[in-house]
Specification:
By secondary structure, the protein is α+β, with helices and mostly antiparallel strands. The chain is built from 16 helices and 22 strands. The protein starts with 20 loop residues before the first strand and ends in an 11-residue tail after the last helix.
């Protein structure tokens, strides 16, 4: 590159640059040789521009142009001129560079897939050659938007008086819900650090330390099974505030969301955002992260069907379960095969089956022989169904009914194209249960984490009926996905100990796990609370990506491995010896 210095990026050229000499650098996207004229599309992260080599170009330029292939790295000097045949599909489609000096900075093999937008290449191949996949324009736009969102967060919270403070990556393993990633200690053999599932305890300690308002774009780690919107390492926009209540945290959060949508998406968000209590969300949508871009609300038909001699309903009612329905507009046209497919969806959410009814003049249904005409009419009225609609019914304990119908309403909305495009629906869900009973563990577990504060008016229920206690917790939901969540924390030592007791910790166990926090709480704790956004999910939703992997530079796959570097991988025996670790090999089946 001696003697050449890039003057601008490819797509930064405008019509005002016509006649100027510029130096551009990037990758050859494609080359066309028209027998005397050679056209090269040069690409960098800003976009593309056309280079042209003519018969009047120097022999050196013509010779080099003939050697260029896709993904060669080039530097060129030339004059900006107007194209005789503009390309409306390119940002720089009115311009081209008449090449006067051309250098091949690096040659390239033929890549395993073409570098272009929306390719159909297998994802495993893309991830193995991630450095090539990241050259694609749509991937680069995703990561550039990620940068802008993170910058917007830092700018906004700085203006609101928050301090950006880093918290440790190596900490103590504490029971916070998911499995920890452990890091062995070389110095204290047999002991381990844990990578943080979140900065939760540290940010609470920062409030106790008097820092008042904290934020961090924080890396977090959880060793759990993956899905489309989950990774073993992920990023949070994390914040905590002292001397606040729920309204304070929600207000500052809404201001950030309004700013980020305005500046990054050019979308205006109206404030204040709508709110639903957890109970309302479950009763109406079957989910604590409801997608409210469409209707299909759940209807409780328990009392309407109570006297129907249908054995399935009778069994559920005897066990104090519920019977609920959704109405599919114009769903009467669905075939039995399509309805059976929906039943399979319901079964994946532990429903034993799916009852259905079409209340037309000649009614159809899976339990029609148990119904009288007036009962059909009553079910249709309660479900809000007309003659051409389909009523889908699930009967079971509430948790199963909610999860099954909540999933079905989303599946039906997708199948019937009921979800409006380019719409961002933001809502708060509040008043979560503080605790939920675990049949597996035979005790209560925290719905969020052990430091979430109960609502003041429910404190008496901690002794009499802990399952009814509501939390000072709130989640922000975007298009049916949890974008972030938080709570007002417990700052009273006695209440914190009570919470640990309800969760099954003895005083000794609580101190063993959280002794440093309990010690700190004895030195004066301000009321405090906060929230954490999932940055990866936010970028996924705002870019319209289908997978969280498309907005992370170097993601992992389903088994938490990295196809590009082949991590995790075995290490040398001497490294294990230094750590005092021996590997027990699994016995192979003979």
């Amino acid at each position: 590159m001696q003697g050449m210095k890039r003057t601008m990026r490819c797509a930064e050229l405008t019509i005002e640059n016509t006649g100027e000499k510029v130096t551009l650098m990037g990758w050859c996207h494609k080359r066309r040789d028209l027998g005397g004229l050679t056209f090269i599309t040069l690409r960098d992260r800003s976009g593309e521009v056309q280079l042209v080599v003519t018969p009047e170009s120097s022999d050196d330029v013509i010779s080099k142009a003939s050697r260029i292939r896709g993904e060669f790295v080039l530097a060129c000097e030339g004059t900006v001129q107007k194209r005789s045949a503009p390309n409306p599909n390119m940002k720089t489609g009115e311009l081209e560079i008449l090449v006067e000096n051309l250098r091949i900075l690096s040659e390239a093999q033929t890549p395993p897939f073409y570098i272009e937008e929306n390719i159909s290449a297998n994802e495993s191949l893309r991830l193995k050659y991630r450095y090539l996949d990241l050259r694609r324009p749509d991937m680069q736009r995703n990561l550039m938007m990620r940068h802008r969102i993170a910058k917007c967060a830092r700018d906004y919270f700085d203006a609101e008086g928050f301090l950006d403070i880093e918290t440790p990556m190596l900490g103590k393993s504490t029971p916070e819900g998911a499995r920890d990633y452990l890091v062995p200690s070389r110095v204290k053999k047999g002991s381990f650090f844990a990578l943080p599932q979140s900065p939760q305890l540290y940010k609470q300690l920062l409030m106790l330390s008097g820092y008042d308002r904290y934020m961090q774009v924080a890396k977090c780690f959880r060793d759990e099974d993956l899905r489309a919107d989950r990774q073993p390492e992920f990023t949070q926009i994390d914040l905590e505030m002292a001397f606040v209540d729920e309204e304070d945290v929600m207000l500052v959060t809404e201001g950030f969301l309004q700013k980020v949508f305005r500046e990054v998406m050019e979308v205006e968000i109206s404030l204040p955002l709508p709110r639903l209590t957890w109970m309302d969300a479950m009763n109406r949508f079957g989910s604590d992260k409801p997608d409210m871009r469409f209707g299909l609300e759940l209807k409780d038909i328990t009392e309407v069907v109570r006297d129907i001699p249908f054995p399935v309903f009778e069994d559920v009612l005897s066990k104090k379960g519920s019977i609920r329905a959704i109405c599919v507009p114009d769903g009467a046209s669905m075939t039995r095969k399509e309805i059976d497919a929906l039943a399979e969806v319901a079964k994946t959410y532990r429903a034993k089956g799916l009852a259905w009814l079409v209340p037309s003049a000649v009614p159809r249904g899976s339990f029609l022989k148990f119904l009288a005409p007036d009962q059909i009419a009553a079910i249709a009225e309660k479900a809000g169904a007309d003659d051409n609609d389909l009523i889908l019914i699930v009967s079971d304990k509430d948790s199963v009914v909610f999860s099954a119908l909540g999933a079905l309403r989303c599946e039906v909305a997708k199948n019937f194209s009921l979800i409006p495009e380019n719409t961002f629906n933001l809502i708060w869900v509040t008043e979560f249960p503080l605790l939920e009973y675990s049949e597996e563990n035979g005790r209560y577990v925290a719905m969020h984490h052990p430091f979430t504060g109960p609502m003041d008016e429910d404190l008496g229920l901690l002794e009499t009926d802990p399952g009814l206690v509501r939390a000072k917790a709130y989640d922000i939901i975007l298009n049916g996905t949890e974008l972030g969540g938080g709570s007002i924390r417990i700052h009273d030592q006695t209440l914190q100990k009570k919470m640990f007791s309800l969760l099954g910790f003895t005083d000794e166990q609580a101190y063993e796990q959280f002794g440093f926090l309990l010690d700190a709480f004895s030195f004066g704790v301000p009321p405090h609370g906060g929230l954490a956004f999932g940055l990866d999910r936010m970028v996924m939703l705002m870019t319209g990506s289908k997978s969280i992997r498309d907005v992370i530079a170097f993601p992992k796959v389903q088994n938490s491995s990295d196809l590009m570097t082949e991590a995790p991988a075995p290490v040398a025996d001497n490294q294990l010896d230094e750590l005092g670790i021996s590997i027990t090999k699994e016995k192979q089946d003979e």
